[in-house]
Amino acid sequence: MSLTAKYPHLRQDFAASLVVFLVALPLCVGVAVASGVPAELGLVTGIVGGIVTGLMRGSSLQVSGPAAGLTVLVFEAVREFGLPALGVIVLASGLLQILMGVLKWGRWFRAISVSVVEGMLAGIGLVLIAGQLYSMADAKAPVSGLDKIARLPGALLDAVGHTDALASLGLGVGTIAVLVLWKRMPKRLRTVPGPLAAVGLATLGAAVFSLPVAMVEVKGLLDAVQPPSLSAFGELAGVGLLGTIVAFTLIASAESLFSAAAVDRLHDGPRTEYDKELVAQGAGNAICGALGALPMTAVIVRSAANVQAGARTKASRVLHGVWLLLFAALLPGVLGYIPIPALAGILVYSGAKLIPVREIVSLWREHRGEALILVVTAVSIVAVSMFEGVLIGLALAVAKTAWEASHLKLEVVDKGAGPVQAYLSGNATFLRLPKILDNLEALPQDRPVELDLSGLHHLDHACRTALENWAERHSAAGTEPVKVTAA
């Protein structure tokens, strides 16, 4: 049997794998540098995401690797706990993901408010943009998200007054310009992925004009990989580290499963098995943690490129991991020629795409409550931190749902003679009890009342008791007994 007969889609998957490799290469390096870890660790995560997660069942066409969405969280974790603890965090997060997948919790991530997820990504995007603009301007970024944004104008003005910083800023801006304009290039030229073209042109420009800009530091793959030591696991006793593990787990899982839902809309192949995909993501993260590398998620940019390039099976994402491995093993020195402001420009562009401007406008017109949740989540992440910001967003979403679930309408029909007719519809819960009683007690005391509860979808015990007590008080005033039509 020929190879083509055994693997009928090999040609399409092979071509798609090369495209995904070229898209993933600059992003893996850029995410690692922005996270404050050696560039090679980004490649390690990309390799594991391609070969290990790629071989497992779950979603057949989505591609995993280091994601811009976790950059801010990784940077904060490395700054607070140190690089050796990163492996422990990622390993523990991976094991939790496997456990959640085995317990079939993957489907529950689909129930998370879309506004919270989009607000989370918007907040990440804002912090990422602000932080990487400092890298473009060859300046050190402040620690907090608010300081990053508040001090940004001053940092950019300072860059204009210094030749080296101005060269760095110009190279970063040029990289963003290439990414924005690449879609307008001739179709033949667009066979080269935009991120690779932008980094390639920036690298060429820096070399030709001998620009005084910072370059990626190269350690070598084996030197960069540092599995966590036994002493690093002692950090698990700290509450702060445990909170970070929970944040990594929830955010990585939500981003991966929402990405899977988006990728399913791009193709007609097999649908994602969410619990199995969560196990696959967990296995990949557990291995990344054991190697001391970055955490992974499914990445929509690489996944969309995979589908658009004509991939038909999981072979394309596995092969892209193989190409990353060969590059890291044979050509690691090439990374040393890549300018850091070019990578920062790619991440500024990626951060901007995380901010759902159109969705915010649409939500504001149709569902202002959802728009408010999105904006508050994003602002909270910038002002406080990632974990607390997401918790604030989830709390708002739950509060909004509870409020809407208790929606109640009281319609009073008073014809001036005869009984007053009152119609209750919706959901009568204790949250609306004060309003119900205020309206009923405002009815005329000297007139008979007919209370129709047939329009209620739900009547809790507290409301039922309160309505019965009101009916007794109203009837005791000397009028006819209140006639109640049961719910």
Verbal overview:
- The chain has 487 residues and is an alpha/beta fold.
- Helices cover 63% and strands 7% of the residues.
- It is built from 21 helices and six strands.
- The protein has helices at 3-6, 10-34, 39-55, 71-81, 83-102, 114-136, 145-150, 152-160, 163-181, 194-208, 221-224, 239-264, 274-290, 300-308, 315-330, 340-353, 357-366, 368-383, 386-405, 433-441, 461-475, and strands spanning 64-65, 297-298, 408-413, 420-428, 449-459, 483-485.
- The strands form two sheets. The chain has a four-stranded mixed beta sheet, covered by helices on one side.
- Strand 4, helix 20 (433-441) and strand 5 form a beta-alpha-beta unit.
- Keywords: Membrane, Transmembrane, Transmembrane helix.
- It comes from Streptomyces pseudovenezuelae.
Rough outline = elongated
Helix content: 55-70%
Q: Give the end-to-end Cα distance, rounded to a whole number of Å.
A: 70 Å
Summarize model confidence as the mean pLDDT. Answer: 86
- The rounded Rg comes to 28 Å
Q: Order the strands across the largest sheet as they lie in space.
A: 3-4-5-6
Which structural traits does this protein have?
about 475 residues; alpha/beta; two-stranded antiparallel ribbon; 6 strands; elongated
